[in-house]
Specification:
The chain has 391 residues and is of the alpha/beta class. The chain has a domain of 223 residues: P-loop containing nucleotide triphosphate hydrolases (Rossmann fold, 3-Layer(aba) Sandwich), CATH 3.40.50. It has a 6-stranded mixed β-sheet with strand order 6-7-8-3-9-10. Helix 3 runs parallel beside helix 5. The longest helix has 18 residues. This is ABC transporter ATP-binding protein. Keywords: ATP-binding, Nucleotide-binding, Transport. GO terms for molecular function: ATP binding; ATP hydrolysis activity.
């Protein structure tokens, strides 16, 4: 299984310009998480801080018991071997063919023979759909192929954590869906921990197990997809629908006068833009048939079902409706509009879950002024589901 990443109070600024402050979350091991936020909110800076390319001002980022913010250069070098990184443009060496690009980390960080390197490189190229393209230069292939080559290179050291920066950058919607499918297939096969930075609404709604959002230099929310997709938090709801109506403006944040003027405009019939209002929990993309069950999705659903009784009634009903008939029978629930069911046994003791299971205690979540309190989460086990409509 992939490594757990525990982030506590992470803060970063450039000079007097604060990028984000007091970010606290845990990336659940072996699950696919996505960090959302308007352009310029420091999502890519967050990725670079996680691997030590940028040093935070304060806070902790703990991986396998090592705090990369304060550890030695030698320790940081070793921890970085746990990571695979897919940069926005693939970051391939233009003078090397795909084979040598993918082989580069193996030659740099291991003492493997060329025979062993060849076996690994061809295996990763095949895994990413690039079989037979090993002799091509980056300039001779499409943007989608360069992304896949970058992913193949990120996989050669068998990473426990894979960071992906704007995977849809330079790709059309169809190729973005294909690369998203590839992420899920890879996660199903190696159970690595993924963090994807994106502002692609379709990817955010259908791919990750967990969603987080940065806004106004803070982490607004982080948790299972079901929690954020049913959230009434204004900034989350606005972003996931891509509309002008809400607290996010052209310069990231609107003042009250602008919000009032826009509201009057919308009430007068002006369209707020964006996609149609989408309520409920849309289906999550599944691994390609023949690929193993994605255990990260199973673990996420475990937590969601444990916290169902803490969610608002409308969210409970939406989640129940998103379950397959087999899952509804397994949990003994059924859709019943108007009378949402209380699902999941209440935990013993104080009921406060461990944030080391990928959840953020409510008193540590950065809040938008006037926003609602996010639910907290826990864990329990659920058997894999292979039926239609499952997660």
């Amino acid at each position: 299984m992939g490594a757990e990443v525990v982030i506590e109070g992470l803060t970063k600024s450039f000079g007097k310009q604060a990028i984000w402050r007091d970010v606290t979350l845990t990336l659940p091991p072996g699950e696919v998480s996505a960090m959302l936020g308007p352009s310029g909110t420091g999502k890519s800076v967050f990725l670079k801080s996680m691997i030590g390319l940028l040093k935070p001002d304060r806070g902790r980022c703990v991986i396998n018991g090592v705090d990369i913010v304060t550890c030695s250069e030698h320790k940081l070098y070793e921890i970085r071997k746990l990571f695979g990184v897919l940069f926005q443009d693939g970051a391939l060496f233009g003078s090397m063919n795909l084979y040598d690009n993918v082989a580069f980390p193996l030659r740099e960080h291991t003492k493997k023979s060329e025979t062993e390197i060849r076996r690994i490189v061809l295996e990763k190229l095949d895994m990413t759909g690039l079989n037979g393209a090993d002799k091509k230069l980056p300039g001779e292939i499409s943007g989608g192929m360069r992304k896949r080559a970058g992913l193949a290179r990120a996989l050669v050291l068998d990473p426990e954590i894979i960071l992906v920066d704007e995977p849809d950058s330079g790709l059309d919607p169809v190729r973005t869906t294909y690369i998203s499918q590839l992420f899920l297939d890879v996660n199903a096969q190696i159970d690595a921990t993924f963090l994807i930075v994106t502002h692609n609404i379709n990817l955010a709604r259908t791919v990750p197990d967990n969603l987080g959002m940065l806004f106004r230099k803070e982490l607004v929310m982080f948790g299972p997809r079901e929690v954020l997709l049913t959230s009434e938090e204004p900034v989350v709801k606005q972003f996931l629908n891509g509309k002008m109506q809400g607290p996010i403006g052209m310069s990231e944040e609107k003042d009250s006068a602008q919000m009032a003027a826009e509201q009057a405009m919308f009430e007068a019939g002006h369209h707020a833009g964006g996609v149609e209002d989408i309520s409920g929990v849309p289906p999550q993309m599944q691994p390609t048939p023949g690929v193993p069950t994605r255990m990260g999705a199973v673990r996420r659903k475990d937590r969601v079902m444990e916290i169902m009784h803490r969610l608002p009634p409308a969210a409970q009903e939406s989640i129940i409706e998103s379950l397959s008939p087999e899952e509804q029978r397994h949990y003994g629930v059924r859709p019943h509009r108007g009378q949402p069911q209380q699902v999941g046994a209440r935990p013993q003791g104080d009921g406060v879950p461990s944030q080391h299971h990928g959840q953020l205690p409510a008193d540590q979540v950065a809040r938008i002024p006037g926003g609602g309190q996010p639910p907290r989460t826990g864990t329990h086990r659920m058997p894999p589901n292979n039926g239609p409509g499952g997660w």
